Structure formats: structure tokens, C-alpha cells
TrEMBL record:
<dbReference type="InterPro" id="IPR043502">
    <property type="entry name" value="DNA/RNA_pol_sf"/>
</dbReference>
<keyword id="KW-0808">Transferase</keyword>
<dbReference type="Pfam" id="PF00078">
    <property type="entry name" value="RVT_1"/>
</dbReference>
<feature type="domain" description="Reverse transcriptase">
    <location>
        <begin position="66"/>
        <end position="306"/>
    </location>
</feature>
<keyword id="KW-0378">Hydrolase</keyword>
<dbReference type="GO" id="GO:0003964">
    <property type="term" value="F:RNA-directed DNA polymerase activity"/>
</dbReference>
<dbReference type="InterPro" id="IPR051083">
    <property type="entry name" value="GrpII_Intron_Splice-Mob/Def"/>
</dbReference>
<protein>
    <submittedName>
        <fullName>Group II intron-encoded protein LtrA</fullName>
        <ecNumber>2.7.7.49</ecNumber>
        <ecNumber>3.1.-.-</ecNumber>
    </submittedName>
</protein>
<dbReference type="GO" id="GO:0016787">
    <property type="term" value="F:hydrolase activity"/>
</dbReference>
<keyword id="KW-0548">Nucleotidyltransferase</keyword>
<dbReference type="InterPro" id="IPR030931">
    <property type="entry name" value="Group_II_RT_mat"/>
</dbReference>
<dbReference type="InterPro" id="IPR000477">
    <property type="entry name" value="RT_dom"/>
</dbReference>
Length: 312
């Protein structure tokens, strides 16, 4: 499996326009057993209430049965079980989707396949949900930009409810840029539309990818690669006369500009760009911030003027 993924990655890197026509066969007994071995113990079960230990009691037979259903096109992902967990830095809670154990295995292998392809396409500005490109790496790059480049304005942006609003049609369209295997596309689509079970009530999922799903992180990066990363790199930066940079971590991103006018134009264009793909910015969390030496001088001058008014 590892050798085949490496070959896929190699082809994806060497041929940026290549469309992969045969992928789903990589979800086989060997790869599913490997996915099972990687799964952590004592994870909360999904709607099937099956744990890793229980699945392992008859592992080979369970996996053979699963593969048989996939070959006959009778495999249907179960709804994800919705739970709520505390949201960091807030008294609110955020939804978490827990797939059934079998679905976790299939998603895990499918995520490996998608990562092998798209890691060759993703830009250096993208961090989060990627191998060795975590939060600290994003902060290091951002620090280098603001310390060494002409950055006077920063657009600190946040997408409102990103995982809940991913448009399924656009997601499939983006996948088809690289994948021409209808079975793989159908499998991704079924996962997205599997539904959500909450308080024993089933709700359809016509949009979004449930947070907590094994496949959700790579799908999120693929979606934002086309919606945001390529747009900024190929369109926004080329239209800017001054310097412009972006650093994205998952669905949060920071854009740095040399000129105020270009930061303002970008902010306005961003609203329209996201709307086209069924997304919107969180207005209370997105703002343009004055930055750098000019901002510091302005603050000092404002401070001096305030003191003069107080004295007089």
C-alpha cells in the first residue's frame, strides 16, 4: 500500500494535469487492516456502537465482508453520530461527527489516497491537517513575513461555520480536477450525504462535512485550495502593486499587505469570492489591522495628541 501511494504521489507531482482513473481498488484487505491497526483504542463508537476491540474479534472476516459490499456497490456509509464537545476559549460547544467503525476504516484509507495526490498540489501558504505543517509551522512563516517584508496592513479572516457549509456540488467538481475514477467520486459523495444521527433522529446532510470525520480534514483542504489558496496566489497577488502574502491554517487565514487600498479591495473581493462557493466570513472575527512601523508611529502620535488635550 505504501509503495502504491508513493507511486501515486510521484505521478501527481510529475504530471500536474494528470487525472487518476483507478483508485478505489487501493481500498483492499491489506490497506483496511493497516487502517485498523492505526486506529486508537477507547475511541467513542458511532451509531453502530462497534468498538475497535469488538471489530477485531473477527477482523479478517469483517473486512472481507466489507470489501464484498464495496465490490457489489452495496456498501452504504452509516450516518455519523453527532456529539457536542467544549469549544476552546468559550462556554459554547461545537458539534463533532463520529462515524461508525467500518466507515472510519474506509475513510482512513480514502484519506491516504487523497493526501498522496493533493499534497503535491497544495501551496506552501497552506497549513493544518497536513503532514508536518501544523500550527507552530504556520506561526513561524507568518513571523518571517511580518518581520522581513513590507507589511503595513493585515486582514485577519475567519470563515463562518466552514465545515457545515461546504457545498457538495463544488466539492465534487474540485475533486474531478484530479480524479476521473467514478467509484472514488461516488464513495466521497456517499460519505458527505450519509446524514447525521442526533438524539436518535436522522437528519439529511445536503451540505457540509461533519467535523470529526476521518476524511473531513483532507476534503476541507481540497475545497479551500481551490476556493482560496489558488485564487489568492494566481489572481490577488498578481493584481497587487505592493507585497501581498497569505498564511492559512485550516479554515482560519491571515493576509498581509503593503498598501491599505489593496487590503480593503481584497476584503471586499473576499466576501464575494466566498459567497460564490456558499461560504461567508465571520464579520465579528474578520478585520483589517494596521501593522508595522507606520502603525506604531501613528499610535505614538495619537498618544501625544491625547496627552496634549488632557494637559490643555
Amino acid at each position: 500500500m505504501r509503495t502504491e501511494l508513493e507511486r501515486i504521489a510521484e505521478v501527481a507531482k510529475e504530471r500536474p494535469d494528470e487525472k487518476f482513473t483507478s483508485l478505489v481498488h487501493l481500498i483492499n484487505e491489506e490497506s483496511l487492516v493497516q487502517a485498523h491497526e492505526r486506529m486508537k483504542q477507547r475511541k467513542s463508537p458511532g451509531v453502530d456502537q462497534v468498538t475497535k476491540d469488538e471489530y477485531e474479534e473477527n477482523l479478517r472476516e469483517n473486512i472481507r465482508t466489507l470489501i464484498g459490499r464495496m465490490k457489489t456497490n452495496s456498501y452504504r456509509p452509516k450516518p455519523t453520530l453527532r456529539k457536542y464537545i467544549p469549544k476552546a476559549g468559550s462556554d459554547k460547544k461545537r458539534p463533532l461527527g463520529i462515524p461508525s467503525y467500518e466507515d472510519k476504516l474506509v475513510q482512513s484509507v480514502l484519506a491516504d489516497i487523497l493526501n498522496a495526490i493533493y499534497e503535491q498540489d497544495f501551496l506552501d501558504s497552506s497549513f493544518g491537517f497536513r503532514p508536518q505543517r501544523g500550527c507552530h509551522d504556520a506561526l513561524k512563516v507568518l513571523n518571517r513575513i511580518i518581520e522581513r517584508r513590507n507589511v503595513n496592513y493585515v486582514v485577519d479572516a475567519d470563515i463562518k461555520g466552514f465545515f457545515d457549509n461546504v457545498n457538495h456540488d463544488w466539492m465534487i467538481a474540485f475533486l474531478k480536477h484530479r480524479i476521473a475514477d467514478p467509484k472514488t467520486i461516488r464513495l466521497v459523495n456517499r460519505f458527505m450525504k450519509a446524514g447525521v444521527m442526533e438524539n436518535e433522529e436522522l437528519s439529511p446532510t445536503t451540505e457540509g462535512t461533519p467535523q470529526g470525520g476521518v476524511i473531513s480534514p483532507i476534503l476541507a483542504n481540497i475545497y479551500l485550495h481551490y476556493v482560496l489558496d489558488l485564487w489568492f496566489e494566481k489572481i490577488v497577488r498578481k493584481r497587487c502593486k505592493g507585497q501581498a502574502y497569505m498564511v492559512r491554517y485550516a479554515d482560519d487565514f491571515v493576509c498581509c499587505f503593503e498598501y491599505e487600498a489593496e487590503a480593503v479591495v481584497f476584503y471586499e473581493a473576499l466576501v464575494e469570492r466566498l459567497r460564490k462557493f456558499s461560504l461567508e466570513i465571520s464579520k465579528d472575527k474578520t478585520k483589517i489591522i494596521k501593522f508595522g512601523e507606520n502603525a506604531q508611529k501613528e499610535c505614538i502620535n495619537l498618544g501625544k495628541q491625547s496627552r496634549k488635550r488632557l494637559i490643555s
